[in-house]
Amino acid sequence: MKKSSERQPYSAAVTGLGLVTAAGVGVRENWHQVTHFNVPSGVGHPEELRGLPNDFMYLVDGDVASFFDAAERRLMDRFAQLAVLAAREAVKDAGLHTESWEKDRVAVIVGTANGGLPFQGEQHRVLFERGPSRVSPMTAALTAGNNGAASVCRDLQATGPSLGLNTTCASGTDAIGIARELLRTGLCDIAVAGGTESSCSRLLAASMCKMKGLSTRRESPTTACRPFDIDRDGFVLGEGSGMLVLERPEHARDRGARVRAQVIGYGASNDAYAPVAPHPDGVGGERALRAAMADADVSGADIGHVNAHGTSTVVNDILEGMMLHRVLGAHPLVTSTKGMTGHTLGAAGAIETAFAVLTLQHQLVPPTANLEKTDPQIPVETVSKVARSAKLNCVAKTSLGFGGHNSALIISRG
Length: 414
Known about the structure:
Layout: E1 12-21, E2 24-25, H1 27-36, E3 43-44, E4 57-58, H2 70-73, H3 78-93, E5 106-111, H4 117-130, H5 139-143, H6 147-156, E6 162-165, H7 171-185, E7 190-197, H8 202-210, E8 240-247, H9 249-254, E9 261-270, H10 283-296, E10 305-307, H11 314-328, E11 333-335, H12 338-341, H13 348-362, E12 364-365, E13 381-382, E14 388-389, E15 394-401, E16 405-413
Parallel strand pairs: 5-6, 5-7, 10-11, 10-15, 11-13
Antiparallel strand pairs: 1-2, 1-8, 1-9, 3-4, 7-8, 9-16, 12-14, 15-16
């Protein structure tokens, strides 16, 4: 597939990863969990969800707030705290030092779907139960979707271009794609990009229960999220953050950085169809994936693995599987890591891109947790039960979001 002569190939070097999810805190713990276990480690039953048809979600284990002092905690809702933790790890992993980098040349792009929704719910209760004088003066700032990006900028002292991005469940993937574009333009040398989400919200969960999007397997929450499985009945909400450090290739080379992988293609589209439901033909996701492949100048035969959106919903898994088959054929190994992390909404694409990078590095495709029997209507080769070794040079990441947002990345070996 040939690209337009007006757009030249461009590779952004991935030099750092950071992960905080229900599968673990840190890249090493996450990778071990998704490749060696078939059930998530962080399942919780928050009081906030008590009495709902789905009263559980996949949570980051441990006291996230303990990583911050009291002054820092007052400036960040949980979704922003998760972003900062993942960003810190990614920067350290890249071998960068914030006290010595050229901070005006560091961009930060952080996606989220719901921002500080739990804190907003808490402050609503304060307003109605205790009156307006007791509402936190920080409510407007902490619930804003840009608080993740702003908090990372403050923590890292990064003063270059900064974006808080919301394309719902495609936010994390788009953040990485846009970071690559900023590097291409020369506006920055380094970009810290990804997504973050902490959606333990009664209002959000109740709404998703009403639309029948969430699994109701209350008797077995660890096996509730089962992408591509014939017995799937919906997704499980998850929280977490994934951050990548991307650099201009010459910048990474000049400082002798280890390059984990390269982002070589990005595509995005919108279904322009419905607020929640994807287009029934999956054409929007197809446009995004084909655009990313054209940008990377690769064909379907070049892509050996797809870390799919794979939410565990009945319709979406079929549509995505059929779309992947149309574009790539039957040969790529397809997995969804949401069975281990839950659906982290705006963070999902970034978390899963980090897993795609690790898949390339280790030449090992993680299994799709809880996948016992692939739905026969899904015409792709899914990986289940155990991780599978593979010779991979190029992989794809796909994301499909509410509002018809679709995005895709093509990643090659470093």
